[in-house]
Amino acid sequence: MTVILGPNRYGKAETRLVRVVRDGVVHHIKDVTVSSALSGDMEDVHLTGDNASVLTTDTQKNTVYAFARKHGVAEIEDFAILLARHYVESQPTVHHARVEIEEYFWDRIPVADDSAPGADGKRHSFVRSGREVRTCLVHHDADGTTTVVSGLKDLVVLNSTDSEFSGYIQDEYTTLPPTRDRVLATAVSARWRHLSEASPYGESYAEVRGCLLGAFAETYSLSLQQTLYAMGERVLNTREELCEVRLAMPNKHHFLVDLTPFGLDNPDEVFYAADRPYGLIEGTVLRDDAPAALFAWE
Ligand SMILES: O=c1[nH]c(=O)c2[nH]c(=O)[nH]c2[nH]1
């Protein structure tokens, strides 16, 4: 028996970056967390402690900040591609780079006394948005292949009707009563794979988000699984730059509270919003001609 080194990668996780763009008195901010992981000729560092092949994780962090200054941060996918290509193309020992970015949204705080022309009552004050987190995952390989997956998480949605659940298996442990009208709530995590790295990432993100919300709102739901499929299907029917959508949706159960001890009825008005346990519904929706995913999701 011989022990050998298996798959490995290393990098700087969760580099926090806030980039301010000063357009006169009107400022813009981009708030992101960048994680990079590199792999390649890394046998020696593991087996003998020779670090000659290692682009340090500290350097990776510094590169994120230097690139933010030199290139700015527009769409997170473009920034991730820039970094991933740089690591692979600048270092012969690095054969593969994985860059993951999260973006947090901020809204402007309108100000009353703003006299600056063109400032439109908004200058340099922001409030962290209650919106979802935008994500991307980019891989670039020394063979020239780039894969891009975009996504979002914590998109919290609720339908207060138009959701049923019945007709499921009844075994000796089943107690769940069927319902013809329930609250359906979830926090959507969705990721979608681009066919090429030339996608219009900003427009694509806004449209996919709209598709997910639209399908959630407009689907009369017989199960969260059915709603999940409808959401992925709408994305792929709308956006031709995409070939695969992966969704994870916790079923945020809302239980009707029994108010009879207090002499009150409860006609679907007062609910206990349970946080755990929760059903977790996960699924992939894809075009039947989707090319091989390679390492895109890893
Ligand atoms: O939409 C649902 N899907 C399930 O699979 C399930 N299971 C459950 O207990 N409630 C629900 N709801």
Automatic annotation (TrEMBL):
Q: Which residues bind O2?
A: 57, 251
Q: Which GO terms describe its biological process?
A: purine nucleobase metabolic process; urate catabolic process
Where is 5-hydroxyisourate annotated to bind? 57, 165, 182, 225, 251
What GO terms are given for molecular function?
A: urate oxidase activity
Tell me its EC number(s), please.
Answer: 1.7.3.3
Query: What protein does this entry describe?
Result: Uricase
User: Its family?
Assistant: Belongs to the uricase family.
Q: What does this protein do?
A: Catalyzes the oxidation of uric acid to 5-hydroxyisourate, which is further processed to form (S)-allantoin.
Kindly name one Pfam family recorded for this protein.
Answer: Uricase
InterPro entries per UniProt: Uricase
Top-level taxon of origin: Bacteria
- The catalytic residues are 12, 57, 253
The biological pathway it contributes to is: Purine metabolism; urate degradation; (S)-allantoin from urate: step 1/3
Chain positions recorded as urate binding sites: 57-58, 165, 182, 225, 251
